[in-house]
């Protein structure tokens, strides 16, 4: 049998986001963020995209599972002990911006929030686990959305600079791995989550979106430079949502359409953050859509100087495209879709399962950028059943992860420089896309149900013990 190998020091672990696990809704002087006003349920994203969504909490109409989530805010010691039992080398997490600056525009950081993350980092280090910290993960301060219009407003760059400097100075001895914006390119599909505003009916969708991206690129470069200055031995990366785009067939028109979709979605943001300049292909698009990016003197120089050290990315699925989709059934996915691929099966939520696509993705990214890569999200959202004896036999999750880990090993043999792997939702959490608890990813089951019931008790699934063996053997025991 083929032996799958990973380099010494490979960073095995798991991944989460503050707004999906922490809870502690109003505790520690935390302010409101975008995630706090997102209703739970399968209609979450359609509600967000509906005209008139006012970013207010309406408890008579909606539930808000993120407010308690899985209560990591109070139970982090218990959870980190379980991560340590699995042998995690790293734990990817995010910092809630509004725990540090409750309104986003304060002059001084909130000490209670800083202390909370001190405690989390100290607990991780107690077990030899390195934190991998996403600075902004779909939780922009609500005040910056309402008062400033999100990232379309240049002033937000100043607020973000203040935020990152507070983090780097406070945690310079505790965090070696950072990422700026989670799935930054998702703003092309769902600007409210990453860019902090909704496109209004009367406005062109392109101008504000690309202007907001420019502000994030400037902010990202400021963060990179500050990180390198304050924590010289740290590494700071970008983070993108990646899904390779296949043409439905060999019709050149469909091949070209797939190529265009791939370049704009997969590569635009990464090109700017890794190469330090706007890609050539975007210039034609700007011209044809009358997009004029307002820049300040020195912006392009700053972007060139503040390129990232590595690329973190999420991989859940590939995407198949056809220019005329009218005769085909659509597929679902992580904010993006396409047409159904007849060669692939799908998850309980309709996301197509394509382990070979991860190998393709790793090769494509490394061929293009030649910088270290880090798979920081990958996993299977599925319904889990607790048996009468309390066991949870999630062999379907093990099979999914096993095949994706094999694909990573193959890519390493292909010559890809791969830093590590953090499986998404290593402990059950609130789904970002649907606000459900029933869409479970974790190695650890959390007794919390979609109707709000549950004890929050943690249980080890079958995959917990499997992943423990994977890490202990450095990927050889799959």
Describe the protein.
There is one protein chain. The chain has 478 residues and is α/β, with parallel strands linked by helices. The protein has a single domain (11-472), classed as TIM Barrel (Alpha-Beta Barrel), CATH 3.20.20. Helices cover 38% and strands 14% of the residues. The chain is built from 15 helices and 16 strands. It has helices at residues 18-21, 44-49, 72-86, 97-100, 111-126, 142-148, 155-171, 191-194, 206-230, 252-275, 280-288, 299-305, 355-369, 395-413, 462-472; strands at residues 11-15, 90-94, 130-136, 177-181, 235-241, 245-247, 310-314, 319-321, 330-331, 338-339, 345-346, 352-353, 373-377, 418-424, 444-446, 458-460. The strands form five sheets. Strands 1-2-3-4-5-7-13-14 form an eight-stranded parallel beta barrel, surrounded by five helices. Helix 14 links the parallel strand 13 (373-377) and strand 14 (418-424). Helix 9 (206-230) crosses helix 12 (299-305) and helix 13 packs parallel to helix 14 (395-413). The chain is globular.
């Amino acid at each position: 049998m083929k032996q799958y190998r990973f380099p010494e020091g490979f960073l095995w672990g798991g991944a989460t986001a503050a707004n999906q696990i922490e809870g502690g809704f109003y505790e520690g002087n935390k302010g409101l963020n975008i995630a706090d006003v997102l209703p739970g349920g399968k209609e979450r994203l359609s509600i967000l995209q509906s005209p008139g969504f006012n970013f207010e909490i309406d408890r008579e109409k909606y539930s808000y599972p993120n407010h308690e989530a899985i209560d990591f805010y109070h139970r982090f010691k218990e959870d980190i002990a379980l991560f340590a039992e699995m042998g995690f080398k790293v734990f990817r997490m995010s910092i809630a911006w509004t725990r540090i600056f409750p309104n986003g525009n304060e002059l001084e950081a909130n000490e209670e929030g800083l202390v909370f993350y001190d405690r989390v980092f100290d607990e991780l280090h107690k077990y030899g686990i390195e934190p991998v910290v996403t600075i902004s993960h779909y939780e922009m301060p609500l005040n910056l959305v309402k008062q400033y219009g999100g990232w379309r407003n240049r002033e937000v760059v100043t607020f973000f600079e203040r935020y990152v400097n507070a983090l780097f100075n406070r945690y310079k001895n505790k965090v070696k791995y950072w990422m700026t914006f989670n799935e930054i390119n998702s703003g092309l599909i769902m600007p409210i989550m990453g860019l902090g505003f909704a496109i209004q009916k009367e406005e062109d969708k392109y101008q504000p979106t690309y202007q907001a991206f420019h502000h994030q690129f400037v902010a990202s470069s400021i963060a990179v430079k500050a990180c390198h200055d304050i924590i010289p031995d740290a590494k700071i990366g970008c983070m993108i949502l990646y899904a390779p785009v296949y043409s439905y067939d060999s019709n050149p028109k469909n091949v070209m359409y797939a190529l265009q979709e791939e370049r704009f979605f997969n590569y635009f943001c990464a090109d700017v953050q890794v190469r330090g300049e706007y890609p050539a292909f975007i210039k034609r698009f700007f011209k044809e859509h009358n997009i004029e990016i307002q820049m300040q003197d020195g912006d392009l120089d700053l972007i060139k100087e503040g390129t990232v050290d590595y690329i973190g990315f999420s991989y859940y699925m590939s995407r198949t495209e056809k220019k005329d989709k009218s005769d085909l059934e659509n597929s679902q996915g992580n904010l993006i879709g396409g047409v159904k691929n007849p060669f692939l099966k799908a998850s309980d939520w309709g996301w197509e399962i394509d382990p070979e696509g991860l190998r393709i993705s790793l090769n494509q990214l490394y061929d293009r950028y030649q910088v270290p890569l880090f798979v920081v999200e990958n996993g299977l959202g599925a319904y889990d059943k607790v048996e009468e004896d309390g066991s949870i036999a999630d062999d379907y999750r093990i099979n999914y992860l096993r095949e994706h880990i094999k694909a990573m090993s193959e890519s390493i043999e292909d010559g890809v420089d791969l830093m590590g792997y953090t499986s998404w939702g290593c402990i059950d959490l609130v789904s970002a896309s649907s606000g459900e608890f029933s869409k479970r990813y974790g190695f650890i089951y959390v007794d919390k149900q979609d109707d709000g019931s549950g004890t929050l008790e943690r249980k080890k699934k079958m995959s917990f013990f499997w992943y423990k063996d994977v890490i202990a053997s450095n990927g050889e025991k799959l």
